[in-house]
Amino acid sequence: MRPRIYISGPLTSSGNVRENLERAMGAARALIDAGFAPFTPHLSYHLDPAEELPHATWMKIELPWVSVADAVLRLPGESVGANIEVSHARKLGVPVFTSIAALADHFALAGSAAA
Question: What's the total number of domains in the chain?
Answer without folding.
Answer: 1
